[in-house]
Amino acid sequence: MRRGGSVAKRPVRGFGGVALLPTAYDVATHAGVSQSAVSRAFTEGASIAPATRDRVLKAAAELGYRPNLIARSLITRQSRTIGVVVGYLENQFYPQLLQALSHAFQAEGYRLLLFTSPPGSGDPVVADMLSYRVDAVILASVMLSSHLAEECRAAGIPVLLLNRKTDSPTVSSVTGDNEGGGRAIANYLLAMGHRRFGYVAGLESSSTSRDREAAYRAVLEPQGFGVARAVGHYDHMGAKIATRALLASGQAPDAIFYANDHMAMAGLEVARFEFGLVPGRDLSIVGFDNVGAAAWSSFDLTTYSQPIDHMVSMVVGATLDQISHPQAEPVRAVVEGGLIIRASTRAPAGAPAGAPAGAPAGGPAARG
Amino acid sequence: MRRGGSVAKRPVRGFGGVALLPTAYDVATHAGVSQSAVSRAFTEGASIAPATRDRVLKAAAELGYRPNLIARSLITRQSRTIGVVVGYLENQFYPQLLQALSHAFQAEGYRLLLFTSPPGSGDPVVADMLSYRVDAVILASVMLSSHLAEECRAAGIPVLLLNRKTDSPTVSSVTGDNEGGGRAIANYLLAMGHRRFGYVAGLESSSTSRDREAAYRAVLEPQGFGVARAVGHYDHMGAKIATRALLASGQAPDAIFYANDHMAMAGLEVARFEFGLVPGRDLSIVGFDNVGAAAWSSFDLTTYSQPIDHMVSMVVGATLDQISHPQAEPVRAVVEGGLIIRASTRAPAGAPAGAPAGAPAGGPAARG
DNA sequence: TTGAAAGCGCTACCAG
DNA sequence: CTGGTAGCGCTTTCAA
């Protein structure tokens, strides 16, 4: 006997005074069918007569019933929940990514369980994603300890890295085209006549920053050009400090590539407001990501785009694949972007610095 | 008999080839205790002998066992999950809020289930938070249909509005001090000698925008000053268009208050780059929120702060209260901010426009 | 302090 | 197509 057995129009109040939601059992009684029938009525493609179904749905609506996804998860062993770990949301790229991820997964019937890694605490907080039985884990811009990766693997939970790579062969990753971007930027700056180059790294530990820098140098150094270098820690203030160091040096670079737009915007401000330089005339500043604010007139930043929608659709696809085929090979996708030329870089002789922005070149592509 | 009855060192592989995680039952067998004992070992303050507990924990570690929170939720009727609905993350205020919320709730042992409302689709997506049995719902910057609010109430799920109010007496809310901010801004602009005022609203439907405007007008209009007005739709481009309309008019305002920083930054760009005006000299521009970028040198924006940490700790406290005392009165907290004076507003005669930024005045406070 | 047993609300498998 | 029945993995009585 359940709760005194009576069926109420509205959620029954339990003995503690807390509201109890109606269950499939209540609906069944109300509709005069079995509890199984109620389950079927709410299961896509289940074998149930339309009439029965309608009767159940009507009863459910009257009682304000909704299937309890917790109970469903317990038996289906699918929580329809994706654990997402993001680091810092200051860099606009990540909120944009998060929003796109959320929409894309919602469209597939999944929800995001959000985990932010507070400064110090790495794994411990993240680790209990496993207790929540998320169907997959997506790590955007966070260190993944190999221990956690191993635990996820052991638990059969797919791990996907977004905008980050790892050496571990068991985890999939989706990144922008760091190599292509670094090369494109170097070539473009060379073509614009620059000869003194700088690079502001994100974090030394970041594969993303390293890959961009390596590709940039791979173009410049063979031609005999050195690259002045500073570390901006992916941070607004850090990038300002790095820029000051670069610009205050004897042979200050007149072309600086930043590991991302977030830092490039900070650098541009230092050049403009502290050194009185005009970006696009006295020096060129280039970022990476093409975040929304890069297009604002305060920055008008030349950058290499990371097409968020493509990256997200790629990672969603890979995630769903990994969920349905746990033994599938991990994916390592590189999504091409394109050089977006704006006013922060020197224009070719004869053209005004503030020339119209170029369209992104190239589309998405997966590469081995 | 479970799964053939054998206990493995590592997660057993089920028949479908999918990894099955060890259960409390497996751990019990391995440790030579009952399954109840395993449960107790993982329950804070349960009655269990230290020796037993250690034995269980050791066995659990060997098997890689983690309690299944889904199963726990089913019986405790607490998912330890908070549903958070955010609208658009372009405005940096919301990522900041989200990050702070996430950290604060994580510290209390709760996780955030993220729901973003795709343009168009309002309730439907959000509605299945109820199916996920979230312990509470926090709505930041999203319309709450009274229908959904009612459903939550019926389900006994507390609803909290963050940075937004409603007329419904059953939902709690935590907002910044829109009235105090609007007044402070008006008084400050008056004191700086402005006589032609403008306001750029967010959305007409937004209580936040309306409250700020009303307070602003309540100071200005009794003194005989009108307020030119445009709607920026809380959007970068919308704010630019609104600003153009204001500045192109015959009697253009020389002091414009924007419903938030996100729009104020756009407006400042229009004034500076399209109208050749120098903010802080030719006109004053004021925002609301004090987002991170407001302090960047490109904007150096005078604004009224919404102290995120205080708002978040307030909403977390209220949420936990509502969860543990479902019949508690809804909270309506207003968190005071302070006027942050930067270079985007005209300085008093004699002082340079780019005077050092002032410190926020006043601290947090809850008011009825 | 401990183990056995009874569910939480649901899905999935049976017969019918 | 339908109703019964057996669990999913856990917490929580209840006796011992």
TrEMBL record, chains A, B:
Region described as Disordered: 348-368
CDD domains (alphabetical): HTH_LacI, PBP1_LacI-like
Stored SMART domains: HTH_LACI
InterPro entries: HTH_LacI (IPR000843), LacI/GalR-like_sensor (IPR046335), Lambda_DNA-bd_dom_sf (IPR010982), Peripla_BP_I (IPR028082)
Keyword field contains Transcription regulation: yes
The keyword Transcription regulation belongs to this UniProt entry's keyword annotation: yes
Pfam families: LacI, Peripla_BP_3
HTH lacI-type domain sequence ranges: 22-76
Gene3D superfamilies (alphabetical): 3.40.50.2300, lambda repressor-like DNA-binding domains
Keyword annotations: DNA-binding, Transcription, Transcription regulation
GO molecular function list: DNA-binding transcription factor activity; transcription cis-regulatory region binding
Descriptive protein name: LacI family transcriptional regulator
Organism: Nitrospirillum viridazoti CBAmc
